[in-house]
Amino acid sequence: MTPVTAPPAAPSGTTAPRPGSVRRRRRRRPVRPLPGLLAWALGLLFFFPVLWMFLTGFKQESQASTNPPTFFFQPTLDQYSAVIGRDFVPYLLNSVQASVLSTILAIVLGLPAAYALSLVRVPAWRDSLFFFLSTKLLPPVAMILPLYVIARNLGALDDARTLTLVYTAMNLPIAIWMIRSFLVELPKEVLEAARMDGARRFTEMRRVILPMIAPGLAATALICFIFAWNEFFFAVNLTASQASTVPVFLVGFISGEGLYWARLSAASTMAALPVILAGWAAQRWLVRGLSLGAVK
Amino acid sequence: MFTNAPRGVPLVAAATGLALVATGCSGAGGAGADGDRIVTVATVSNPQMEDIEALASEFNDAHPDITVEFVVLPENQLRDRVTQDIATQGGQYDVVTIGTYEVPIWAENQWILSLDEYAADPDYEIDDIIPTVRSALSHEDQMYGAPFYGESSFLMYREDLFEEAGLDMPERPTWEEVEELAAELDDPDTGTAGICLRGVPGWGELLAPLNSVILTYGGQWYDEDWNAHLDSPEVEEAVTTYVDLVRDHGQSGAPNAGFTECLTTMAQGDAAMLYDSTVAAGSLEDPDSSSVVGDIGYVAAPTMETEHAGWLWAWALSIPSTSTDPEAAWEFVSWATSKEYHQLVGEELGWERVPPGARVSTYDIPEYQEAAEAFAGPTYDAIDNVDVEQPGVHPQPWTGVQYVSIPEFQDLGTLVSQEISAAIAGQQTVEEALAKSQEYADQTAVSGGYRD
Amino acid sequence: MTAQTPPETARRGPRTRDLTRAERWLRRGPLLPGLLFVIAMTQIPFLFTVYYSFQSSNLLRPDSDSFAGFANYGSVLGDPLFHNAVANTVLLTVGAVLASLVLGLGLALLLDRAFLGRGIVRTLMITPFLVMPVAAALLWKTSMYHPVYGLLNWVLSPFGVQADWVNDFPLLSIVMVLTWQWTPFMMLIMLAGLQSQSPEVLEAARVDGAGPLAVFRRITFPHLRRFVELAILLGTIYIVQTFDAIYMITQGGPGQSTTNLPYFIYLQAFRSFDVGEAAAAGVIVVVATLVVAMFALRVVSSLFEEES
């Protein structure tokens, strides 16, 4: 093992953790090819089904299920044009609205709540925290009928705003748990700095704590967004023609008559593309955000 | 100390307000120009319904004041969704697509409107609707659903493989003959199954073909006094035949194969025979989805004790009693199930895409006869020959072939189909599966209040 | 690292008592909007569910509603299909959570080192988590598991493996799909845990002559404990509620071998339209999982411990 120069002691308190020091350490390790190759193999293995779905979207139905599998084929855009021909855009807009707004709401409501449950420690914080979690334990299928009846009486069926609120409630417990885990792990010095009085304190909060947990917030937001975007059960039950979202559009291609796998693959690819791109773009934050909480 | 913390509150209020103010967007599934009257149509996803959506602009041209919006869902989700909405008086839909199973039950509950008054309009030509289909969609002699298309079942077989093997398909095969043919044609070396049959649980999946076999063997679910008879020798013989056939000479993965999987198997040339819905023929004759175009022969559903053995299903358009504008809804229903619509589909989209099994006159259109030459005749005969009042050997206290028209059947049928599917998977014997099924059926008759 | 701290009630007690009433409300202030929102959105439907659970009510028989007392609870708890669903849920959840956790940890360890194209591999790895569960389930059923057209059999046939996956190993098939979907999530949390280790401590240990295994056992693993617990907690909450994969792949079959609790409740609610029994089953599930969660969080886990 290469000799080590001790990295500079991490400056405590007011600055964000520095991944730089971590990276430097790694670079100096001798590179062994085997773990890298193994990681590549597993990565490709996990990705392969998605790639296959992507490819299937460019096939004719008769090529979608064959034995042996069809690897080489004349790609066709038939499936995509059929999908787009079904007026995809309104579904997309509804999905964007419900996912983005519910994510914002979950963060806006979740951040103060997590703050109260960690740095302030309101009385019975454990019970509150546990209560939030417990709301995730009722299977949606068991409460869909009550929800439907309530929404009907409020005239809120088939309304994207209803979905927004339902998704916020669905994601808020997770958001609070995640944000809280970042807040409780903030370095002591930061907390002490924040423990000054009055207006100063709020400024400190905004200037110090928020920037520090920003990657964590981004990670939380991304997770909320993914769950909201992919949510199917509430979407199919609470909407009809006006507020339907992309997953509902997607299952519309599961045909009761005739073959549909190639076309569904095209639709699935289109439906998944926004989250896949968002996920790929934000994955660095995701790891940093999730890990940030534990850096001391 | 924490004087600033509550500042979060206005922020929350603002964000909530933002969410609430944001408009509901333009609406998914909208179809064309603005109109004062909105008709929301819940449809099952299949090619025929896609065609309706594609042609909705024509309807709009004729009815500029009506806007049609579609909700497209797979069969199961549609059924769950629409039942929930109508049972709770949700009022989300003006037109719902339901099948022959639901129509009498929903009519009994007064969830859907009788269409007789509307359909009396001579332009609609109600007498042109195929009589068996019309009676399957009626309750107390009133029509509650306008058939969009209908299907029966028949036996499809590969003429080329039969010729190669030197075999002949009888014009009216029995199940015993089918067993022998399947054994001859089953070829593990080339991966060709002797026959493909559904095996996936679900009352609309496995039970559809299986019940048509049970009926023709002289079996029945209930007698006229609602005594269950799923453990009778006739039922056992029928189910044993079905299970053995699919286990010994059927396709791989049978316990998870439904209509789509069987269709894929047949379309890929991996089965010599397929006993399934008549609508499968359209896909099997379509070069984009099938590699066996032109090789398929069609004969009537195999029989034993009865003269005919096909099932009967139709997707129909009904108007929920919660619809706010039933007149506009009828305008759409009558348009989509009219003779003119069939002409329109033929001219605009191709004659092979005309919805089958709804109107007699469809089968007199020369272009349609030509386009659907291979299967139009057998399809019509299969539908026309069904006896929905008494499809089997014994009289039954309900109308319908491959199902029992009681609300409890969805549950009962699902349970029974799970047991039979497990028998197909080899997890239990047919006797065991039927013993449990008999118990379920017996309980259902009592708990549903059909007998003491 | 988890710093063990004295029970926090001892520390908090006097502080809380010293506060004035107004101060206490100010402290609660930030919590209230979120708390009230969640109560409104989840507890009102839940109360309705409790109400329905005491009613005999069938959607398909309007006007048949009547008070049923505990009859629905009795028939659900006495239903062998319900017992079967409980067992399946436990197997499914434990199997999928453990498998994805172990795989996720292994992958995170691999990805924690530098190698060519590490960013790309991480990108590939997280993709399964982003695909819609409905689409993922159909993808596995149609393209992977199918006994004739499935890629799994095609890949394994040179080794003499030819299985009808979904029928011969129904629970395993579902567990595999769930593992595929949830491994990326577990991996991300594990990776976050690994990357948040203090480099100084690791280096110090190495300088002291500790081998990689010893470092993992003595330093990395204790450090990861909170992350493992968080991953198990979040994973379990979602995997217990698995519905799409079962609905799309097996419909709960063959027989009842993959019917889990959500699917069981679905069958009650949408096949028999027995609103009362479905609600009762839902309430039973909530109470039972609440007890398990309470035990796990308060007795076993360190997540509720007071941090430094």
TrEMBL record, chain A:
<dbReference type="GO" id="GO:0005886">
    <property type="term" value="C:plasma membrane"/>
</dbReference>
<feature type="transmembrane region" description="Helical">
    <location>
        <begin position="261"/>
        <end position="282"/>
    </location>
</feature>
<keyword id="KW-0813">Transport</keyword>
<protein>
    <submittedName>
        <fullName>Carbohydrate ABC transporter permease</fullName>
    </submittedName>
</protein>
<keyword id="KW-1133">Transmembrane helix</keyword>
<feature type="compositionally biased region" description="Pro residues">
    <location>
        <begin position="1"/>
        <end position="10"/>
    </location>
</feature>
<keyword id="KW-0472">Membrane</keyword>
<comment type="similarity">
    <text>Belongs to the binding-protein-dependent transport system permease family.</text>
</comment>
<dbReference type="InterPro" id="IPR050901">
    <property type="entry name" value="BP-dep_ABC_trans_perm"/>
</dbReference>
<dbReference type="InterPro" id="IPR035906">
    <property type="entry name" value="MetI-like_sf"/>
</dbReference>
<feature type="domain" description="ABC transmembrane type-1">
    <location>
        <begin position="92"/>
        <end position="282"/>
    </location>
</feature>
<dbReference type="GO" id="GO:0055085">
    <property type="term" value="P:transmembrane transport"/>
</dbReference>
<feature type="transmembrane region" description="Helical">
    <location>
        <begin position="129"/>
        <end position="151"/>
    </location>
</feature>
<feature type="region of interest" description="Disordered">
    <location>
        <begin position="1"/>
        <end position="28"/>
    </location>
</feature>
<feature type="transmembrane region" description="Helical">
    <location>
        <begin position="34"/>
        <end position="55"/>
    </location>
</feature>
UniProtKB/TrEMBL annotation, chain B:
<dbReference type="InterPro" id="IPR006059">
    <property type="entry name" value="SBP"/>
</dbReference>
<dbReference type="InterPro" id="IPR050490">
    <property type="entry name" value="Bact_solute-bd_prot1"/>
</dbReference>
<dbReference type="Pfam" id="PF01547">
    <property type="entry name" value="SBP_bac_1"/>
</dbReference>
<protein>
    <submittedName>
        <fullName>Sugar ABC transporter substrate-binding protein</fullName>
    </submittedName>
</protein>
Automatic annotation (TrEMBL), chain C:
<dbReference type="InterPro" id="IPR035906">
    <property type="entry name" value="MetI-like_sf"/>
</dbReference>
<comment type="similarity">
    <text>Belongs to the binding-protein-dependent transport system permease family.</text>
</comment>
<dbReference type="GO" id="GO:0005886">
    <property type="term" value="C:plasma membrane"/>
</dbReference>
<feature type="transmembrane region" description="Helical">
    <location>
        <begin position="123"/>
        <end position="140"/>
    </location>
</feature>
<feature type="domain" description="ABC transmembrane type-1">
    <location>
        <begin position="86"/>
        <end position="296"/>
    </location>
</feature>
<feature type="transmembrane region" description="Helical">
    <location>
        <begin position="90"/>
        <end position="111"/>
    </location>
</feature>
<keyword id="KW-0472">Membrane</keyword>
<feature type="transmembrane region" description="Helical">
    <location>
        <begin position="171"/>
        <end position="194"/>
    </location>
</feature>
<dbReference type="InterPro" id="IPR000515">
    <property type="entry name" value="MetI-like"/>
</dbReference>
<protein>
    <submittedName>
        <fullName>Sugar ABC transporter permease</fullName>
    </submittedName>
</protein>
<feature type="transmembrane region" description="Helical">
    <location>
        <begin position="278"/>
        <end position="300"/>
    </location>
</feature>
<keyword id="KW-0813">Transport</keyword>
<dbReference type="GO" id="GO:0055085">
    <property type="term" value="P:transmembrane transport"/>
</dbReference>
<keyword id="KW-1133">Transmembrane helix</keyword>
<keyword id="KW-1003">Cell membrane</keyword>
